[in-house]
Each structure stands twice: as structure tokens, then as C-alpha cells.
Known about the structure:
The chain is an alpha+beta fold. Helices cover 21% and strands 42% of the residues. It has six helices and 16 strands.
Amino acid sequence: MTTLKIEHRTHFRYDAEVVSSYNEARLMPAWLPRQRVLDSKVDVSPMTWSTTYRDYWECDVMAFEVLQPHRSLTVVGSSLVEILAQPARAERASWDTLQGPKFQDLLCEYLDNSAMTDPPEELAEYAREASHKLSPDATARALCEHLHDQMRYVPGATSVHTAAREAWEARSGVCQDFAQLAAGTLRQIGIPARYVSGYLHPKRDAAVGETVNGESHAWVEWWTGEWTGFDPTNDREVGDHHVIVGRAREYSDIPPLSGVVAGSTEDLDVTVSVTQVS
């Protein structure tokens, strides 16, 4: 069992006084069988009103308004999470099982693509060829390894509005692009897949109590008898250094922060710090 303390701080600075803003924050880790949330909160300054709810994707959301003139806005998500060891894996589903009407219906949301996740034909063909020789689970892993080999991780190379195809054409992107490319391609060959938003403790050998620069991160989960998480950006299985916030079809379903600002353009600073407590 690993316990991680996470602080996700976002600071907006405006070039003129803002009259009002309306926002949503998805910064609170999910309570899951392998993930226990010991503490979680979101602090906003300034703030006029707030409420919390659980959205369609079962992600905890804090909605808030600032209805007073302001030139800056700070949002801090703080959490303490226990991550349990990965249990033994269940028997893997065959291609015949995945193609059956039962799972085509139950998991239909994770089988359809949008313009943001629709994969390039070159990548879809690679996955189809792999599927002729490998099981669904092995095909998914092979695809993620291929993405890791072919793509370069380049901060700032893409934005939240970049489609998977565009990132592949440039052969560069960030974790969001790796995750959307993997999910979209797996769906194309009939493997249900979902986009996962969360945090990563990047330093495996960090000492207990050592605070490091963490990451707001994204990866993919596919269903082949059970949901399996894999991090194509780092070419490894999701483990006790990954913390899940939300799971959905793509980034736009569960952005960490979203909103509308009346009156100005903005400058943005984001920092994530992670401490392994035990």
C-alpha cells in the first residue's frame, strides 16, 4: 500500500479586472476499490458561491462562481490517497466475447469515437494486424508500446483542443494525446477503452516524506474481461504511483478546470506537488 499527498495549484492572472467567472473543478480523486481517499478538498480564492455534485461519469465536481471584481483567481486541490496493491487479474476475454452483443451494448460508450479520438488509418491498421496474431489484451499492450516508440513527449506541442490525428501526424504531444490516441485506436478494433485523468508521482525511488514536482496526468484503460490501466506516455502499467480522478471518453468530458470568464484574457500558472507519506 502506498499513501500519496497531492497538491494541485492553479493561479490565473488577468490583464484587467474581471467582473465575474463561472467554473467547474475536477480535482478530487475518486474513491475506488484500489484507491481510498482519506482527505480531499478544493480551496478557491476569491469565491462567491460553490456547490459539489457527481457528474455523469461519476467524477466529483466542484462548481463555483466569482461574482465580484477580481484580477486573479487561485484554485488549490489537496488530497491524501491510499493506493492498494493490484489484485490478481481475472481471466481475459477473447475476441469472440468482445464482439458479442452483450458487451457491445453494455460498453457502447467506450466503443464509439469522436473527432478528438478518431485514430489515423495508419495506426488503426497497425492495431488490426496485431489483432490477427495476439489476444485482445496483448494487442492493447502492443499498441501502447508502439505509441511510446513512435511518439515524442513534448510539453507545449499540443493543446487541449488538439485532435488525436493531429498529434500522430506531428509524432509529438503530451499525455492527453497519448491517451486519446490509444483509446481511439482500441475502440476502432472493438476493444472498449476509456480516457483516465489523474495524477502521477514520477519519482519511483523518492524517499518517504520527500515532496517532488508531480504531474497532472492522463492514461488509458481497456476492457478485456476487466478494466486494465496502462500509461502509454511512460510505457508501463498503472500502479501505486497513479491516482485516478476521473474516467470518461476523452479529455473534454472531464477537464481538471473549465469555465467562463467575463471581461479579460488570462495568464496561467499550474504546479502539482506529490509527497509519498508511506
